[in-house]
Design goal:
By secondary structure, the protein is α+β, with helices and mostly antiparallel strands. 28% of the residues lie in helices and 24% in strands.
Length: 384
Amino acid sequence: MTTKRDYYEILEVAKTASADEIKTSYRKLAMKYHPDRAPEEKKKEYEEQFKEISEAYAVLSDKSKREQYDRFGHAGIDGRYSQEDIFRNVDFESIFGDMGFGGSIFDDFFGFDFFGGGRKKKKSRGVHGSDLRYDLTIDFRDSVLGKEIQLNIPRNEACDRCKGNGSEPGHQDSSCTSCGGSGTVRQSHGFFSMATTCPRCKGTGRVITHACNKCHGSGVVKKERKISVKIPGGVEDGTRLKITGEGEAGRQGGINGDLYIFISVSKHRFFERRGNDVYCEVSINIPQAVLGTEIAVETIEGKKAKIKIPSGTQSGKVFRMKSLGFKDIHGYGKGDQMIRVHVDIPKKISAKEKQLYMDIAKMSKENDAPPPRSFFDHMKDYLV
């Protein structure tokens, strides 16, 4: 048998901790290990941690139970209280009420209605529909301006013959005899008793006696649905859009799943996106770089914007045009357009151009030649 950890150690408090200190520590740990926040690969680990800290809090937050635990340790609790008794009258709602977590997790773990006080008989909720994924590739320009598109999504939809309940019209289903209609069965493990989904009715609490002739009791049929989706301007490669309720239909009265659209954006011949900024490269010739010029540059919206190139501009210089990048998908302004200048060196030139470059080179050498030496400079040579 596995040795249970000390409740004070679990909640990371001293044995002399006050009720407020115990509550504060539990709240912090519950936020950290709540299964709704767990990565998929750690969900089981978080569930075990959450159950452990919740049991520790249930005991230490109750004055009489804490006294029993302080005197006799776990033997004073396990031998005196059932698990339902341990959690009875614990005010979890004051802790979780403003944390955005419901009490259903306690129902799933232990089979109690903690926020309502006492054992809870679960209502039939059917089987939740599966989520769907749709991979969508859009043009670069559509990612700039946004676009409304029509998608044909093959999916399971509620059967129109039985209205999704799986039973042939005119026949009634019956309460599941395995779980008594609660949708859950209890399993005992030592001192622990855990509620799990009933394997016979899959948690619905009912059993179909006469299956629908069209859907054969599943409550769903395969159909193709046309869905209009608005792609927002500013969306970037790898964005995931969630369309609530447009996944597979729930079975036997369960709610629909969701549709997730994974967006890929085609590469552009001229632009490269980095965050909300967009980069491009333009070429200028040597005279333009030396003397300066004004050029027109394409923007991501298909327009032209002018930018001044000052004299003496070096190859690789980056210029910024403010607010000509992507608009933020969350509505926080726009990025900038960054223009990297490349000075184009000609590979072939005419004889006249060659002579002009030679004249320029000669002038550059003359300009770089040291100034003529004075009489005093010559005298220094003799004095050294």
